[in-house]
Design goal:
By secondary structure, the chain is an alpha+beta fold. The chain contains eleven helices and 17 strands. The chain has one domain: Penicillin V Acylase, Chain A, CATH 3.60.60.10. Strands 1, 4, 5, 6, 7, 8, 9, 10, 11 and 17 form a ten-stranded mixed beta sheet that branches. Strands 2, 3, 12, 13, 14, 15 and 16 form a seven-stranded antiparallel beta sheet that branches. A hairpin with a 4-residue loop joins β7 and β8. α1 packs parallel to α5, α4 packs across α5 and α5 crosses α6.
Length: 351
């Protein structure tokens, strides 16, 4: 087992200032050099090519996030094109991943499955003072969110389906950020998902204080919505969008349904996802399908749990207290994974 960590970053202020603050942190971080090496062979085919179109879309949906990118660019002395390429969350290749989500009326628990060398190791609590809702959750591509919850109690997590037949559009991590920062409830999130262009096919699981969990199956061609408590890596409604091989994702879905029927509280539900004995937590890191973190969100309590690695007690984050102005007394979440390569925030990741 190797030691891993995620830094906890707390910030209150305008989007531009938040971007500049993050840029200052990134100057001495290995994250950007590691990202550049990982993306070098893909940049001609998969990187942002139409910055004007991107800015026009973002100006309508979330202009404040553009200000955050400008702040990052200024702090890192980048031109606009490169800043949008690095932080825009639009028209980039996405590495396949696993991921499993289970929701009840008062909580959502999510396993994020991917490759450790692409994981940023940043958990963000951000309260904007200009525009948008306060959000907490782990980041991806700096500005995006892997999963999370906002001040209104809207929780979100996404699961990969496939990247074939991709089109120009937003990546999952930026879509997650847009949902959390601009939507107050599930209904608004669904409307946003139906409106914006999608780069790849993903399921977005949504839960708010109303207690109904929904899965929005989104592809570059259409979006379909269903009520459900479980989601893995295949569509139910958009079957024509599914990958040819679905045995593993369907088996994992059935395992979750079977194991969760015996749980009586959130901690038992969390253990089904995080404990290796139940068969949901995955160690398939080389296949970009190993479980890196487990998150739990409580929409009515405005609390979150977070842990890196298996069979660990979660760190409890009191988002409600943080929203009242009390900073959390935590700077880093530590954990262990049965793997040998570090996160991009920890040093040289290799190829």
């Amino acid at each position: 087992m190797k030691q891993y960590f995620s830094d906890v970053i707390q910030y209150r202020g305008t989007h531009y200032d938040f971007g500049y603050f993050q840029g200052e942190l990134l100057r001495n971080s290995p994250i950007l050099p590691n990202r550049e090496k990982q993306w070098e062979s893909k940049k001609d085919r998969h990187f942002l090519v139409d910055s004007a179109a991107y800015k026009n879309i973002m100006a309508k949906i979330a202009p404040a996030i553009l200000e955050e990118i400008h702040g990052l660019a200024d702090a890192l002395k980048l031109d606009t094109e490169k800043a949008l390429r690095l932080f825009g969350g639009y028209y980039l290749e996405f590495t396949r991943s696993g991921c499993s989500i289970f929701a009840e009326s008062n909580f959502m628990v999510r396993n994020y499955d991917s490759h450790p060398r692409g994981y940023e190791g940043r958990y963000i609590l951000y309260e904007p003072t200009d525009k948008g809702y306060s959000v907490l959750g782990p980041s991806m591509q700096i500005t995006g969110r892997v999963d999370g919850m906002n001040e209104k109690g809207l929780a979100m997590g996404y699961n990969f389906t496939h990247s074939k037949k991709s089109e120009d559009g937003f990546l999952c991590n930026m879509i997650g950020r847009l949902i959390l920062e601009t939507c107050a409830n599930v209904d608004e999130a669904i409307l946003l998902l139906e409106e914006i262009p999608h780069r790849h096919s993903f399921s977005y699981v949504l839960l708010d204080p109303s207690g109904e969990s929904y899965v929005a199956e989104a592809s570059p061609r259409q979006v379909a919505v269903r009520k459900s408590s479980v989601c893995t890596n295949h569509f139910h409604l958009l079957d024509e969008e599914n990958r040819y091989r679905q045995e593993e994702t369907r088996e994992r879905e059935q395992t979750i349904l079977k194991e969760q029927q015996h749980t009586t509280n959130p901690y038992e539900a969390y253990k089904v996802m995080n404990s290796q004995e139940h068969g949901v937590f995955s160690k398939k890191y080389d296949a970009s399908a190993g479980t890196i973190h487990t998150s739990v969100y409580f929409p009515t309590e405005l609390k979150a749990w977070f842990v890196i690695g298996p069979d660990r007690k979660p760190v409890i984050l009191d988002f409600n207290k943080w929203l009242r102005g009390e900073d959390l007394n935590i700077t880093r979440v530590k954990g262990e994974l049965d793997y040998h390569r570090p996160f991009v925030n920890m040093g040289e990741t290799g190829n």
